[in-house]
Amino acid sequence: MQSAPVCQPPGLSLCIVSHNAYGMMSGAGARFIGGVEWQTSLTARWFAAHGWPVSLLTWDEGGPTEERVDGVRIIKICRQDAGVPGLRFFHPKWTGLARAMRRAAADVYYHNCGECVTGQMAMWCRRHGRAFVFSAASEADCDPTLPELLALRERMLYRHGLKCADRVVVQTQTQHRRMREAFGVESVVIPMPCLGPADQEFSPPRRSTDRVLWIGRVCPVKRPDRLLELAAACPDLSIDLIGPVSDEAYAQATKRRAEQLPNVTLHGAVPRQRMDEFYRRGAVLCGTSEYEGFPNTFLEAWSHGLPVVSTFDPDGLIAGRKLGAAVKDIADMAVAVKKLLGSTEHYEEASRNARRYYAENHAVETVLPKFAAIFQEAAIEKAPRTP
Description:
Mean pLDDT: 91
Number of helices: 14
Number of domains: 2
CATH topology of the largest domain: Rossmann fold
Strand content: 15-25%
Largest sheet: 8 strands, mixed
Structural class: alpha/beta
Oligomer: single chain
């Protein structure tokens, strides 16, 4: 397969707003690191490495007001807990965002994940004649009920941001259709990038292992309790449950239940630099989420040749491309996992398909040049026309 051409810097500058991405960029001070933070930090580093002036706007988690990491200019907005409760939404959070966007002085502003910030950025960009590109991070961003946005002002600002964005990017054809039906917004489908092992470093998973992986935040949307149902129903499986466990009641109840199951190892939060160890020694990744965008964990598993067995199947890819198995419930999941692990031929076919699909659709040098083209198009359309 030929790789996508390397993107040449177009003389444009890029600003990415990702409030929680400081820890992912700096390796210190992280309150929370999720798929959005991983994607935005990967994007920032890639564009900086390809000659674009890149700013990343984050919460202030300590240190100087500005830092430079891997060629990326990090500009702090304010502390997440700064200001007076009830008023901090406007000041210093909104005013701090506007001030940081002004300091970035970029040609293109990019935001991933639907929230009130989507509208705030769109309003600032429209007022100052800058291009704004929004990327949906989840099926929830394309759902007219906006289940992740509980406050009315959040929903109003997000809807306004969608309408005002110069480009809207989604991850799947399903999201493209729902974005049009729910909001009347046209979008461009671009798969998300994933930094997997290089071809020369890749080796297919060993069939000598039967370890099942589950990776994600321990929270109701991800439904790790269903993984524990699988563990209880299949005591012969060895299961690694990886992800941060908060102090919330659901997370703590899940933790207690996991600790009672002899075939489950609860690892808690694992540093990203160690994740390859788990993918290399695992055999199958299980997904139990209610809804997702396009999980980074799926991409990472496929980059290592691991099949995915999941209750969520983006665009029907898992079933259609035989990348593992799409299932309805835990009973189906148990059957699918045992089928994969019980047949070397079946497993190796799914493993080959997974690695091929990743390389053709989600490798960094395949995906990010497409984002570069979108950023350039949006900036050119926004540039003042010479009479």
